[in-house]
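in:
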């Protein structure tokens, strides 16, 4: 069975179209991670990520209509920045707690006559 010139041209164009157009969905999804992938990349558990998302600490994209557990997609660069910010805030809170504890003990020792 031989192809006519018209059929050959159509086949060539279809092949070129498939090769020339990269799937746009794949390029958009390349930057987004599932919750399990984000957990593996950051060292946190999937539960900690979902809990942080719910508390507003970590940014994520909610996918789907809802349900009892939403499907989330994460951008690693934004997630790492949010984790860094949360760590710095926690360090400041820890320092304040240590200073408050120290001053309380110092006052108590002064009252005891030590």
């Amino acid at each position: 069975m031989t192809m006519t010139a018209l059929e050959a041209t159509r086949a060539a164009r279809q092949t070129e179209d498939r090769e020339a157009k990269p799937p746009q969905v794949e390029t958009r999804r390349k930057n987004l991670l599932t919750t399990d992938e984000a957990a593996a990349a950051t060292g946190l558990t999937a539960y900690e990520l979902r809990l942080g998302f719910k508390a507003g600490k970590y940014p994520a994209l909610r996918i789907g209509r809802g349900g009892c557990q939403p499907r989330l997609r994460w951008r690693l660069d934004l997630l790492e920045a949010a984790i860094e910010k949360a760590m710095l805030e926690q360090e400041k809170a820890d320092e304040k707690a240590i200073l408050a504890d120290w001053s309380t003990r110092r006052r108590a020792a002064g009252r005891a006559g030590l």
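note: The domain at 28-111 is CATH 1.10.1660 (Multidrug-efflux Transporter Regulator; Chain: A; Domain 2).
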